[in-house]
Predict the 3D structure of the following.
Amino acid sequence: MKKILYAAFLLLALYLPSLAIAQDEEPTIYVIKKGDTLWGLSERFIRDPFYWPNLWERNQVITNPHFVFPGQRVKIYPDRIEVEKPAEKVAEPKQPQPVEKKEEPVPAKTFAVTGGEGFLMEKAQTPAGFIVSTYQNRQMVGEDDVVYTDIGRRNGVEVGSRFSVFKRVGPITHPISNVVLGDKVVPLGTLQLSELEEKVSKAIITKSFQEIGAGAFLTPYRPARKEVALKAADKELTGYIVETKMGNNAVAAGDVVYLDLGKTQGAEAGNLLYIVRDVVPDQKYALDKIDKLPVEVIGALVVVETGETTSTALIVKSIEAIYRGDRVELKKN
């Protein structure tokens, strides 16, 4: 019996120091190098590039969520990254110092969009005009073909003015409230006015993504391809995926969706939101009633364009199939 107690005491003596070390684990120190980003640091050390909003929120020493500077020190823990606050320097007599070249901030993480994402046209939005006819009344036209519009001098335009061409697909209702949010529209191409009269004009199709016909509507020219930089949200956001670009029931990374979040709710282009799904507890296995469980994160998306109450977003990560009606959120805690 004494031998057993001695062996147990010996094991405990050996275990306790390792336990203390684990509890007081020293972080790994990493010094920011040129080219590092919050996105890259999160991917490298936490194995999740989408952790960066948490890293930004908890480290207010970083004045811009996308810029970190060479020489900054960060502490790497198994479950988090902390940016060291710069040490306060004791005031010293000023002496002439050689002029040093300032380190330039690294570029922000960006996502490229093609301009073919479409959007939800809300009630307050109105077209600039319509294509009222095509050359020789053709059913469909394309690049370099002639069309006629109801935009003229009275609209304050001039020869050479450019417009984007869209078609209206149909109204979109909210999957939860059934409220009509707007009309889904898809881009068809671009045109340029070539001849003007008071109320009408002649135009040339300069770019066509799909076939264009009479009835297509026009908006002021919208650049096709553009880069959207990640931008930290100013407030918490919670909303829903209300429709997909292609109308598919299930979507994944690389697909475009539309949200019930816009400028009114505080959404901005560049905001990264998580796509989440509630987990329903099985009460029969719980000793006490469980109200809710932590949500399941199934993906992430980036807002690429905002309206007043809706927005267009690109899914950048998906763990499993994502559906219309799935919730999106960004919690600032």
The helical segments are 2-23, 38-46, 52-57.
